[in-house]
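Margin note from the TA: students keep mixing up input and output lines. Inputs are the sequences; the output is the structure of the whole complex. Example:
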Amino acid sequence: SARPVPLSAVEAKDGSRLPTGIGELDRVLGGAAMKRSAILVGGEPGIGKSTLLLQAASLAATRGRVLYISGEESAAQIRARADRIGLSPERVEILCTGRLEDALRALDETKPVFVIVDSIQTVYSPEAGAVPGTVNQLKYCSHELVSWVKERDAVLFLVAHVTKDGSIAGPKALEHLVDTVISFERNDEDIRFLRALKNRFGSVDELGVFQMGEKGLSPVEDPSSLFLVRRAGELPAGVAVVPVFEGSRVFVVEIQALTVPAKGAMTRVFSDRVDNARVSRVAAVLEKRTGIRFSDQDIYVNVAGGVRLSESAIDLALATALYSARTDLAVPAHTACIGELSLAGEIRPVSRLKARVKAAQSLGFTRVIAPEAESGSSAVPGIKEAIASLFGTVKSS
Ligand code: TYD
Ligand code: MG
């Protein structure tokens, strides 16, 4: 029976992390996987969950026994994937089953340090009702597996399929059962993003970036230029560049805007990657401070490469893209903009300015407009001055 003990008598266990051997995955987990923890790996079918975890399994096998439990694929299919990627499959043990009781027995026998259950939606137990695949089954089986790992110096990965629209109907019910939830996402190309949605043992703002190739997933270690659109000569009107932070790394991204006269009395904002409220607010500040009208325009905003931007440091670049779109004046080449915009039209300081300026400069942006002068960037106090400095004049309508 459980008895209380003085907290001082408990040994603080640190250094109890287990690296997966995949740097980008470890980064998202907060440095490495924590022992005695359960990690839910979500993502749409085909995105690369099995590939990632098989690669991790093969690397982690140097640290102890690894058990890969698959209810989705046959052992032969998994072997074929390992061969395709060029993994050494010697140390990875495989069990193809959907039965929870078989899985638990194998766990007790092999005592692995690294366990992968692919996927949790294929695990069932007669204890949890007659029908496999119900939320009840999902919860019961996950709870049993998580209970197993809580008592062992091991790490448990539970793979969960998530539908494209992001509704994780089934797996959502598991989020509170596990310590960490990481999600695999993609843009239009073969780039894959890994981010933590919940992490009991680290921050949730680190982004892992991979490329899916012929031989599985490989890390993109310096992704700062990943989303940059390279253009020769003049820029089209409506685009502006800003360095943003995703976790501890800078990405230089391009914001694209388009304005068209609204058909009716109602104007609308279409913006998937930047919050609509931010777009409306920045447009309102621009209208008020420069006199150019947005209140009769429909506004479209996009971000090249499909990243979502939520930092306030993008305000100035967003304003610049909107102004450029509305006036048809292109932003001068090799120019980046950084800054938060207040309702009064002032350009407010942003965090980690130095690193942003440096990232932009290293990618060839020789002119950086920023709230404070920083190693070659020029400081502007307000949106009106920024517009005048970028476009030569302030046009109004
Ligand atoms: P998979 O890991 O099976 O996805 P999930 O487990 O999330 O459903 O990845 C399947 C996709 O990845 C499939 O479309 C084939 C592609 N792929 C590659 O492009 N290169 C590779 O080396 C591997 C193993 C898969
Ligand atoms: Mg799979």
